[in-house]
Amino acid sequence: MKKIALPALALALAPFIATPAAAWKGHVVECFDKVYVAPEYRTTKHLVKGAKTKLEYRNGTAGAQVYRMHYPAIYEEKKHLVRPGHYVMKSAPCRKGD
Q1: Mean pLDDT, to the nearest integer, of 54-70?
Q2: Rounded CA separation 92/48 (Å)
Q3: Which of 40, 52, 30, 46 is nearest to 78 (CA)?
Q4: Cα-Cα end-to-end distance for the chain
Q5: Over the stretch 78-90, which tens digit does the pLDDT of each residue have?
Q6: How far is CA 84 from each of CA 18, 38, 41, 42, 78, rounded to the nearest angstrom?
Q7: DSSP class per residue in 71-96
Q8: What ranges do the domains of the chain cover?
Q9: What's the sign of the alpha-carbon dihedral 49, 52, 54, 59?
Q10: Residue 79, CB-side half-sphere exposure with 13 Å CA sphere
Q11: Cβ(82)–Cβ(41) below 8 Å
């Protein structure tokens, strides 16, 4: 009797245990694409060497000529990370087959 009762009980309970998992059919509500957002930087400039105007003599002694030369300022630019790069979910039309 015990040999028949256990399999019979298992068969009797099988529809109740398997049905919720087998019957679950979800539907698509909304689709998203994974989009990379580049990192954001803040830059600051630090003066290294100021601008200057200078007189220079060129072409030796025979045809000496005086040039007024302007040298622009030299800046060092430093980048500071504000927000690292990351991915966001962007709403997109749903594609069939995915």
Answers
A1: 81
A2: 49
A3: 46
A4: 51
A5: 999 999 999 999 9
A6: 46, 7, 9, 12, 16
A7: E--EEEEEEEEEE--EEEEEEEPPPT
A8: 43-92
A9: positive
A10: 6
A11: yes
